Amino acid sequence: MKTFDEQYGVYREAVEASFDVFLPQDPSSVLTESMRYSLLAGGKRIRPVLALAWCALCGGDTRAALPAAAAVEMIHTYSLIHDDLPCMDNDTLRRGRPTNHVIYGEAVALLAGSGLYDKAMETVLDFGAEYGLSDSQRLDSLKVLCSASGLEGILTGQVLDIKNSDVAVDRAYLERVNDLKTAAMLSASCVLGAVAAGADAETQARADAYGRAVGQAFQIRDDILDVISTPETLGKTPGKDSVENKTTFVDLLGMEGAQKEVLRLTEKALSLLDGFEKPSFLKELTERMCGREA
Hints:
The chain is mainly α. It has helices at residues 4-22, 30-39, 46-57, 66-84, 100-104, 106-127, 135-149, 154-163, 171-196, 201-228, 231-234, 240-243, 249-271, 280-290, and strands at residues 93-94, 97-98. The longest helix is centred in the C-terminal third of the chain and has 28 residues, at 201-228. It starts with a helix and ends with a helix.
């Protein structure tokens, strides 16, 4: 039986290898080079790992979840490229190296983000059947991706986050921002894994609820790390929320109160894994995501 780290490595390696299949090199295209620069920049690959792990949890063949898992990471990467642009967060460091627009310029970075979004949808459509998905599963996967990455997800979440500057916001507002900007894509990852496994609607709803709880905890922990961590540890610039006068859960609840909320949401997520035959990997992943230091 594999340890947690061994199993995580198996999932991560499968995702990394898939990028050369779904987004191969093209020496003649600076746009493809820019897309791959950010996509292959490393990171924990939490979202695609969640997709593969939920597929396994539901008794599916994780190979069937690979196109959707890669698509989730492509969309996540596109959102990071756009978040870092001067017109948004204006950040120069991501995953420990210069952001896309610093290397390729704003115009190419903008197009690279858009290209990754397009490639994500193409990956599910073009490779889904080859990897074992039925037409209905591919359609369901696209619906999940579009919802989480569109007006019901990260786009509206980003707008609400932009408006959270030099204004008084309450807990409900922050919870909505966190749900749309962070939890939506984490939830989508879990649901996509369940869809690839052929899970029923009830199980997909459970995957969604798990992802929402983990996403809220993950973002509040991010708020905490933004205060206490360093660029070397985070791989990005800390203290941005304070500079931009954004309200976070640390501001509303204090450091201790914010950490208690992380623990409450972590317990909620863990409870949603009860009843599955082999939940140990996802339970440990939940603990590590919500208690991370970077």
